[in-house]
Amino acid sequence: MRTHLIVAAIVLTVATAAAQTAPPPVVAPIPAAVQANVDRLQTAALGSDLAYDIVEGLTTEIGPRLAGSDAEAKAREWAVAMLRRNGFQNVRIEPFSIPYWERKVERATVITTHGRQNLVVVALGGSPAADVDAEIVRFASLAVLNDASPESVRGKIVFIDEPTNRTQDGTGYGAGVAKRGQCGMVAAAKGAAACIIRSVGTHSHRFAHQGGSTHPRTAPTAPSAAVSPPDADQLTRLLARGPVRVKLEIGVETRASAPSGNVIGEVVGRERPDEIIVIGGHLDSWDQGTGAIDDGAGVAITTAAAKLIRDLPRRPRRTIRVVLFGAEETGIHGGIAYARQHAGVMGKHVVAAESDFGAREVYRMRSRFGEGAVPYARAMQRALSPLRIIAGDNLAGGGPDLGPMRMVGVPMVELSQNGWDYFDYHHTPDDTLDKIDRAELRQNVAAYATFAYLSAEMDWDFRKPAETAAPAAR
Amino acid sequence: MRTHLIVAAIVLTVATAAAQTAPPPVVAPIPAAVQANVDRLQTAALGSDLAYDIVEGLTTEIGPRLAGSDAEAKAREWAVAMLRRNGFQNVRIEPFSIPYWERKVERATVITTHGRQNLVVVALGGSPAADVDAEIVRFASLAVLNDASPESVRGKIVFIDEPTNRTQDGTGYGAGVAKRGQCGMVAAAKGAAACIIRSVGTHSHRFAHQGGSTHPRTAPTAPSAAVSPPDADQLTRLLARGPVRVKLEIGVETRASAPSGNVIGEVVGRERPDEIIVIGGHLDSWDQGTGAIDDGAGVAITTAAAKLIRDLPRRPRRTIRVVLFGAEETGIHGGIAYARQHAGVMGKHVVAAESDFGAREVYRMRSRFGEGAVPYARAMQRALSPLRIIAGDNLAGGGPDLGPMRMVGVPMVELSQNGWDYFDYHHTPDDTLDKIDRAELRQNVAAYATFAYLSAEMDWDFRKPAETAAPAAR
Q1: Do the Cβ atoms of A434 and B229 come within 8 Å?
Q2: Which end of chain B is more exposed for a tag (fewer CB within 10 A), N or C?
Q3: Interface-testing mutation among B61, B66, B74, B205, with chain A (most A C-beta atoms within 10 A)
Q4: Are A74 and B115 within 8 A, CB to CB?
Q5: What ipTM describes this predicted complex?
Q6: Beta strands A115-119 and A89-112: pairing type?
Q7: Domain identity same for A279 and A396
């Protein structure tokens, strides 16, 4: 114990000395007048319920907004009216088409020697219809199923009981979601009749977690559904007693083509209107809940942030474009359509950030800039620090709809939200307005307003490569 | 501030003096050999998962156990086998008949100018079938509806949005549940087409809370259903925007008579086998969840407690009778049947306690004894204090199935459980095994074993009136 203390003291001394001698990070300067506007925006955001009112309106008046559905179309009309009411310019819908899939019915019943029990299930996005009555075979993870012999699962229902780890940054979801995407294909490849997965999610409530899964038309695929975590536990306990039969029924409606679209509104730049800052969220939702945290919140946060910037005495130099993407949940269709429709002007897209991780506080800002532009990230991080946001790395992913833009080199910012309880609600019937805290939503608006305003007002090139970086004042 | 401190100091001095001079409460003595068995029982209970295994078995193998259903019959068979396996004597079913009601389907859809939204609802116990499409009228409470004119609700669906307060002892439920029992009658009396209530419950999840409601055959009654709390909020928000129409469909199955029964097992007394200590819970459950906390836990706690007493080197003087009541949820049918079937020997029922308030720790022991028997309650409370159980008053209600026995003068004990989160799960799909904590269940078993053993071993008359009370040694 004593030895450890001495070592710790030495390490601490060395670390302190290193910190004292290391050069401070280079931070781009922000003029006082611009900083004054940042302060004004933050104060306004922290005192405004505009974002809450937007997500309240969307989730109340429209409710669930399945990609390609009539409800999603109503949500676009709603969003156009809302953007116009808030004084946005160039408000428009950029339409595109998507393949349509809707769950119409799903039922799962356990059949034991004592009788029948209903399970809480939801058909996974893209699943074919099913009417299967077969024994289930449990696998602790997708990896274990991958190793299983076809003989052991042929004609049966594979059951992947892999849990989801609770993490602040969503990495637990990333690890746990593979089974959702792949179970239908893997099951079919091994000759299984269907696939049931333990819901991707961190709660222990009787909610089954919806989400997309891969069901290619060109390869065999099996019907797939998720069971709630308590039902997954029930299956495991029943299997400990002997063979378990499940009757799984799934009814779906599919159409080759259905309408979707991105809704756009702008605060047009006063000097360089063709240079674009993109912020936004996605307008569609899965259909069990009302899509409050996924992603009414993102729609509301980014719209409210842009509206506050619009309300400044003068508009910033560049254009802030709010993009409310359509059909994210069923395949990032809106993000792909946007990148395609604006392919010719991607070089004019200065930077982009999507809010699509709930409604909790932002705790960190990450960037994905050219190495020479890191001082601009530092400047933003310094401006965000009064909001209790820490500096992150330069490896931001950006939101799901920004993937296609990121791949062609558009700089990204990620305002990382605390996702500790996001997967308690995400994609379940429980994604409703009551899960949103007004104060946390305000902090998000303040963060987006700060980032978007600085990006639009300052003469910063976020693509700046390392070799051209000029020394920046501290 | 200073004045307050002086006053506080004086009050404290007086209070301390009073405490020093007040006579100590009279506590009946417990012989060392008996206390040794109490210690042995508590140690055994705190180290045993028997109760957990019982509730695990019941909720896994049988699952939901609606009163009068095939599943409840299977649960009786299961309980008989379980009691025999655990060495109980005189294991038997005491059958009775009940009117049968089962919800087959329920759907509620809000119809707005923007489209339709599904609500999470459950038909209330006893509700007639419905196919209603009407405007809803909101009332903040049952009291406000009671004051409403028939003209204001005629042909409409009344919506009672009264919340449930979170309390440790369940009094919030008592206050909130009146609307569930009465809404169908009140609605019908005023000419309304149906009644929708905000779920009785303290959570904010998309679960609708099931429960009995009064639908007399001799008076007009309206179909009634509960909506989940987030859906109730949604209705209120929609109503703030204008009129709201709801389509409510309820399908039910009813039969005049269905079989139910109480399952009984005994640890027969070694000296006075005809003197009975009753402990138990109820075997039936509502059908959305698996009835883990309501009331698999009560079945498990009391059975495990009696089994531990049975395992002592010798059985206590009096008989401990475990009664697993049938059909509690739909009208306390099991408790009524028991009191009727044993009416001739109620005088031989020494004391009774039912565990039907979840699976959280016991924090208090209350009694309902003759005034002369209060020293016995004090003795029990002292014996329970190592389990962190405090002394309560002499106004115990006893559990719901004990009401008929209480009314004919059988002494009662209440081992009050912490009900802080009970109404987060109670009567919803979320009443499942994962909500039970093994350690808390063990503490319950220790408490019931202590109470039941002392009641069966000691020569205590809990009916003892005040005037005959002999001075008890401290």
Answers
A1: yes
A2: N
A3: B205
A4: yes
A5: 0.90
A6: antiparallel
A7: yes
Reduced to 3 states (helix: H, G, I; strand: E, B; else coil), residue A26 is coil
Whether residue B73 is predicted with pLDDT greater than 50 in this model: the reply is yes
Query: Is B434 close to A56, i.e. CB distance below 8 A?
Result: no
> Which pLDDT value is given to residue B174?
86
Asked if B318 and B248 sit in the same domain, the reply is: no
Q: Tell me what pLDDT residue A368 has.
A: 98
Per-residue pLDDT reduced to its tens digit, A355-403:
999 999 999 999 999 999 999 999 999 999 999 999 999 999 989 999 9
Q: Which DSSP string do the residues of A236-300 spell out, in sequence order?
A: HHHHTTS--EEEEEEEEEEEEEEEEEEEEEEE--SSEEEEEEEEEEE----SSS--IIIIIHHHH
Q: Do B334 and B313 share a structural domain?
A: yes
**Angle made by CA atoms A203, A209, A211, in degrees to the nearest 5:** 140
Instruction: Look at residues B233, B254, B275 and tell me which one is the last residue of a structural domain.
Output: B254
Shortest alpha-carbon distance between residue A314 and chain B (Å): 35
Strands (E), B302-343: 318-325
Structural domains in chain A (count):
2
Considering the domain architecture, whether residues A53 and A171 belong to the same structural domain is answered as no
Are B432 and A238 inside 8 Å of each other by CB?
no
The structure's pTM equals 0.91
A114 in B contact zone (CB under 8 Å): yes
pLDDT tens digits for range A195-229: 999 999 999 999 999 999 988 878 889 999 999 99
Q: Examine the fold and report which residue of A253, A273, A304 is the final residue of a domain before the chain moves on.
A: A253
What is the average per-residue pLDDT within B390-414? Answer: 96
Q: What share of chain A is helix, strand, coil (3-state, %, to 5)?
A: 40, 25, 35
Same domain flag for B76 and B118? no
Q: Are residues A114 and A80 in the same domain?
A: no
State the number of CA atoms in the 13 A half-sphere of B195 facing the CB: 36
Q: Domain containing A336: what range?
A: 32-99+257-468
Q: Which residues of A touch B112 (CB under 8 A)?
A: 61
A10 occurs within a structural domain: no
Contacts with B187 (C-beta within 8 Å, 6 or more apart), sequence order:
B145, B153, B158, B193, B194, B195, B222, B224
Same domain, yes or no: B220 and B89: no
